[in-house]
Amino acid sequence: MPLIAFDHASRKENMIALTFDDGPNPFWTEMVLDVLDNYKIKVNFFVLGKWAESYPEIVKEIFDRGHLIGNHGYSHSKEIGDFEKSEEIIFKIIGQHSQFVRSPYLDPGLCAGYKPVESGQVKIIGADVFPHDYKCNSPEIVDFAVKNTQNGSIILLHDGSNHEEDLKLRPAAMFVALPQIIESLRPKYEFCRLDEMVFEY
User: Fold this and answer.
1) What is the pTM of this model?
2) Active-site residue among 8, 21, 22, 72?
3) 179: alpha, beta or left, given left = phi > 0 and alpha = psi -120 to 50?
């Protein structure tokens, strides 16, 4: 039976989820957290185990500020055991297991063999709004996010990178776009954590 990723939640409610991949990032994640605090919204961070291992204090801060932490694998690779290794690190830092995973390259097949997914304890999360913020400029990111978001949307942004050389530069356009995305969507939608949303098979 093929594994299913949820690209969106229920379309019946005006709830949407902002998600951030490939962190924690020592250069950007805490500034993103400050923006989210300023707007009083809670979001979702799919962390890479290798960065969580290097920057556990940032993962703890994400958690302590009330955001949801998901598992994005250890090294953004297709290696078997990548999710298990990352989950062990996440649990050690926050004392909780992830309820959600996001597979590298949005390929749910890469979760095959990860027992919490196959048993139904953990959901695979995709996205229906992907502005490709790692290669677009800020106005393009904002325009795409605003035009394509609808009830139940999951928006995929990046506060980090799986490549160390990109950590300082890759999230810059996203960071500029973030307040504009929030301000544009907030009048119509409620920003939520994934565990507050309804997912329908």
Assistant:
1) 0.97
2) 21
3) alpha
Mean pLDDT of 71-91: 93
Ranges of H-type helices in the chain: 29-39, 49-54, 56-64, 82-94, 115-118, 138-148, 172-185
Q: Which of 76, 133, 158, 159 is catalytic?
A: 158
Does 163 qualify as catalytic in the annotation?
Answer: no
CATH number at 101 reads: 3.20.20.370
> Cβ distance 199 to 61 under 8 Å?
no
Which residue type is seen at 147? Answer: K
For residue 145, how far is the Cα from the chain centroid? 15
Number of domains in the chain: 1
Query: Omega into 56 within 30° of 0, i.e. cis?
Result: no
Query: What pLDDT, on the 0 to 100 scale, is given for residue 1?
Result: 59
107 assigned to active site:
no
